[in-house]
Amino acid sequence: MEFLSDIASLINSTLRISTPLVFAAMAGIFAERSGVIDFSLEGKMLMAAFVAAVGSYFLGNPWLGLLLAIIACVSLSMLHGFASVTYKGDQVVSCVAINILIIGLTTALAAAWFGQAGLTPTLNEDQRFLEVNLPFAESLRDVPIIGTIYSDILSGHYIFVYLAYLSVPLVFWVVFKTSFGLRLRAVGENPSAVDTAGINVFAMRYKALAINGVLIAFAGAHLSTAVNANFFREMSAGRGYLALAAMIFGKWHPKTALVACLLFGFTDALQIRLQGVELPAIGEIPVQLIQAIPYVLTVVLLAGFVGKAIAPNAIGQPYIKER
Amino acid sequence: MAPVDKSKVPWWVSNLIVPLVNLTLALLVSGLFIFIAGENPYEAVRLIIYGSFGYIEGFAYTLYYTTNFVFTGLAFAVAFHCRLFNIGGEGQAYIGGLGVFLVAINFSFLPVPIVWLLSIAGAVVFGAAWAFIPAYLQATRGSHVVITTIMFNFIAASLMVFLLVDVIRDTAQMGPHTVALPKEQWFPSFKDFAGLFGIKIRYSPLNISFLLAIAASVFVWFLVWKTRWGYEMRAVGHNTQAAIYAGISPYKNIIIAMCISGGLAGLLGVNEILGVHHKIVAGFPAGYGFTGIAVALMGRNHPIGIFPAAFLFGILYQGGSEVTFDMPNITRYMFVAVQGVIILFSGALENLFRPQIESFFVNRLNIKASA
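The joint structure predicted for all components is written out below.
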């Protein structure tokens, strides 16, 4: 039975670790489907983590922290849109600027306000999100198999975990089953055709970026007000890039992107378990090398074992309305 | 606003006035950040100027930082001419430093000048090798270099910590660093030169790598603008389809551009290992690779622009450490944020006021001409 509970706890951590990646990948799908490259997921996630932690600390309510994080991330998305949609600046440069700005600003402000080398104060139970126990989780625990799946794997996660997996079908429905989604995809594939049809290309891209900002805020809040009880320097640790790689690997599709996110989450969960464990025949692998596994996996996945990824046609190009 | 005829805009307007306006905007926003952090921006500027120019050691530090930023700025610029975003300068510099150290320690039986040359070659080869895999994947699989180079930064950091802890650590010491190189291999520093003229300085990280930075700038200028390959590379960056029709291989050019870019970033290891630390210490690239992005974008990706931009960032770094010393609320991360703002205004938002400024000057010159 110990083997079974090992597996259960591994799946449990996979679901938890994948959560910010899922939010970020869904956010990326909106931006990139509309034709705007978004490498700034990393910076926005970090910003959300900072604002959620600070907001929740001062206002005493994690939901208000989340709300502030959403406002901050949507603002950053608008800044990205302002630079790259309205002023037709280089989209990648705009993203790199946002990422570097946020790495610096969050740490600098945390240090200036709290004087703890880039840490925000630890949040108490009222100021952070707590684990949600699903109904009957305790009473079902002893039922074989069903009990393990329901009580040990599905129950007892933070609210963001459930929201993340609910967001996937929602994003799928919006992007592929609504007229808004059709326009969104058309703007990313052939903006001039959409323009001819009387739809405002710029407004569509701004709307996509606004949704992108809301989704990525959840990822950041999950990091600083749920799994951790404070913000620390560079706590997003490349997750924005991992999510983007997952999205590309998933061919800009919510369902396949979810699979890729879970794969990353699983590798990370496995990585944590492998630390300090003696493996048969290999012995103990040094921690530093184990920690590099998710990053190596990203490169391997991007190299594309499933064929070349085809991006939306108009991605990265500012739309210039013909005169 | 109607766009201005580009040919009528004097060069100094688009290459001098517009960047300066953008820089001013960026510094104003940065001043706001310092204000939010609870300090006086005006006082911060005074400290920055004093720290970077006010005394000879400070000025030497400014030039030392400049050296690093020239290397990483050139690295980003070369790849950018091929429309590649090499944001992996950090990792390439780290691995480049490994190359310097391994060459210097293993060839210590050779005469010192030869060891220096070989070490520089080692830095270039190791840095280029670290850029090669992302380059190869971009060229053949279309894997975006922004993601792969970032991942290679993380991988380089893990790999180097592993090597420094488990493989090449100086076992006589506690910290994660290697043994020091033999003293005769150390680059002559500014302190030694000043000593020749009877000027006494306590310590200076500035060393002859500064000359290497000048040489690298000339090399990049020649390579990108004066050789056939540079032309091909810029053609691929400008319009890949047209380049293919002209018989230029984007595949080959992407890989060469990235490898040269990585090699230039690797040179940072020469300054840090032979010039300053004389051993590998964990995390020695310290963000210089990222700053190179801002330097290149501000310098409009040309060595003539990159040098003053690197100097400006040298002032910000050295002056910035003076600020962090005197102002408890400001940490060095504030200057990371300042870099972000500068990239934003001189890179992504460079068109913000460009049409207005250009038409303003074109109109004035027209009035003068007709009067």
